Known about the structure:
By secondary structure, this protein is mainly α. The protein is 84% helix and 0% strand. It is built from 18 helices and no strands.
Amino acid sequence: MNKGVRNTAFYLIQILVSGIIMIILLPIMAHQLEPSELGQFVLAQVYAGVAVGLSNFGLLAGYERNFFYYEKSNSQSAKLIYSALTFVLINILLLIFFVHTYQLDINRLIFSDIPPDDLLFIVLIGSATASLSQYYLTFLKNSGLAKRYMMFALLQSIMNFSIVILLLFMSNLKVLSLAYAWLLSNLFLFMALSVMHIKVLPLGFNKEVLKDMLRISVPLTPSVFFGFISTKFDKIMLGFIASTGAVGVYNIGQTLSLTIFQFMTGLGRVFQPEVYRKLFNGEHKTQSGELSNYILPFFYFSIFVALLVALFAKELVFVFFPADYFDAIGVIVVLSVYYASLFFGKIVGPQLIFAKKTYTVTFLTLIGIFVNAGLNIPFIIKWGITGAAWATTITGILMTTIGYFVAQKYIRIFWHWRLFFTLYAVFLLGVVWALIDYNYLTNLSHIVVIFSKLLIIFLYIFLGFRLTIVDRNSIKLIFTSLKFRLRGG
């Protein structure tokens, strides 16, 4: 069986199970916590993520790029990963000490309503261990060890879910239940990954290897920092301009729409390493569009998931969430466009990093920050959480488009744009219909609405076969692979 198909099956199983776990957990949290409490946890994750991202100095990108230089040497691969981990761990320990010392002052500075004293500190440690685990998970991904990747990722998701449920229903910790679950599940994941890797990769450290990674990653540090700020700017501004309650509702909508990006990321674990290899092999230099042909099926299935999320956002929220969270519907539909547009960012990034244009990545990210800020503030003031979603979406589409043209300047990829645009047009049709349904079709029969949505899905599937993007053999191969993987083959 084709290794790429098997790995795709593993990643999709992980994304599917993790997504189901999150979809089950979200309404439970919504019924047990006030929107303001959920908003406090979300903001703690945002600020912890910013701090941890800075302490990493963008080293994960440098590690992933140089992985392919050393993948045939076990000792060099070991020095590469442990040099990166040692550097980041020292930075993280200093960060944790600083936050522990000044956490009360920091709470008063960044939260509009003061959360439990230790919330930020606990979330910070959880985020720090999660970032360290990413180096091990990247090693598994780039080594093609998708089954192990899936097992560890699912272990963390299941453990987090179990601890949240246990603490929410058997303690009075309230929002701290989420923080402790985040900390314990990520800490366990990091320890388990460390034990596994030490058995196969002997401990080692090399200053020159570290310096080589830093030459690539340090210019990316502002990009990582501002990029994270850009993706979280909507929540930060909602916290300042609106309320933590608005952040909580917005987070529900964003988390549900984020399943699109998570699915895309699962596919990316298969196609991104292969994109790097094809770039190193010079396959982008031909005008046959080989890279485009390789990427197109991944795009097709990514947009299909985005279409499903957008079309059925209303039904999902109405069925599973209390009325306090109904405003999340518009957020889900709008952000589905944003996450769908990010597919090409997963190609643009490797293009620019392969070309060693990391300063360009930083410059583009800074532009995105200013555009995002310029749109989010007035949009939030005027339209609240829906305005935040529109501002983020407009910024994302604009910067992805600019990033594409810049990346093409350095590393040209020949795309079959007619096929991509056709699929995206059907997706946008579904988004428009979902927005009309949410805002205006309150008196129309629900059966008619559902039938119309199913017609749009049928049209998209039909195009996949008509344009020969998918066929019966490829679908049969995917389902056979899924069954094979689920049986432990």
